[in-house]
Design brief:
By secondary structure, the protein is mainly α. The protein is 74% helix and 1% strand. The chain crosses the membrane at residues 7-31, 63-88, 100-121, 162-182, 198-217, 263-285.
Length: 291
């Protein structure tokens, strides 16, 4: 009995912090989403408008378009990070000269704040001073101008996200690969299995939980990206990189439309939960039933 109460006492500070900084802000955002509120307008008072903000979200063409480009961004960014992260994890599993140095350099992007990453990439991709447009123009004859070309802007944001977050994927997959037992691989080699067969039938099923956890984390993080894209493209050109997070930012801060921005935030949170639940049902639940 005492141990049970002791556990709750030890958890109390953490639960209190989670409640104050997680639950309370969420409930406040839900409350604001049912109001029309512009604190900097002529009438700064909250006006209860029932579900008018949510009705507006459903028929907001700009929001629907932002969902489409966000889905494309998440797909290409997370898939690229997963493939590249696995390749790098396998490379770092082997011994080679300068391994410690390259591993340190590889993880440096993780310690950079997103706004710094966006600023650095803005400098590197500016046509007049950037090293990337200069290299592409002089060596490949390719003109890079993300301020005018929508496709280039979208691809550049994906590459920037891959550069920033691939080290996280690499580290998680290294941890998963290191924890694998050696017996199944030795038995497969004795039975004459090649590398492709070992990967598909042994390595991939054994590291699937780590892969799915990584995909969940990166997908949720990519869906709310704001700082990097705002610094790099500002959501342009046009709406090519106006992802959901950028769309919410522009509704809340430049337009000071707090009620509508809160409604969009709640809808995006709901969609994120639904997507994660569908992935769980489609990928993890069938595996648990078989087990």
């Amino acid at each position: 009995m005492q141990s049970r109460y002791l556990g709750w006492v030890l958890l109390a500070p953490t639960l209190l912090i989670l409640f104050l900084f997680g639950v309370v802000p969420f409930l406040y955002v839900v409350f604001v989403s049912f109001h029309q509120w512009n604190p900097f307008g002529a009438s700064p008072d909250m006006v209860f408008n029932w579900a008018a903000n949510y009705r507006r979200v459903v028929f907001d063409a700009q929001f629907i378009a932002s969902l489409g480009v966000t889905a494309a961004f998440v797909f290409f960014a997370v898939l690229s990070e997963l493939i590249l992260g696995y390749v790098l994890a396998q490379a770092f599993m082997k011994e080679f000269p300068g391994k410690a140095f390259f591993r340190t350099i590889h993880t440096l992007p993780l310690i950079m704040a997103p706004i710094i990453v966006g600023s650095v990439w803005k400098l590197m991709t500016t046509p007049s001073i950037g090293i990337i447009p200069d290299f592409l123009a002089n060596w490949l004859g390719y003109d890079l101008n993300i301020g005018q070309n929508a496709v280039q802007a979208f691809v550049t944001t994906v590459v920037m996200d891959v550069w920033h977050w691939t080290p996280l994927v690499t580290l998680t997959l290294i941890a998963a690969l290191v924890s694998l037992p050696a017996d199944p691989f030795e038995q497969a080699q004795i039975d004459g299995a090649n590398r492709r067969q070992i990967f598909w039938h042994i390595t991939l099923p054994m590291i699937r939980p780590a892969i799915l956890a990584t995909v969940f984390i990166r997908m949720m993080d990519a869906m709310r990206t704001v700082d990097e894209v705002l610094m790099l493209t500002g959501g342009g050109p046009g709406s090519a990189t106006r992802y959901v997070g950028v769309h919410i930012f522009k509704e809340v801060f430049p337009r000071t439309n707090y009620g509508y921005g809160s409604a969009i935030s709640v809808v995006v949170l709901y969609l994120t939960i639904v997507v994660c639940w569908l992935m769980y049902v489609g990928l993890i639940a069938p595996r648990n039933k078989k087990g």
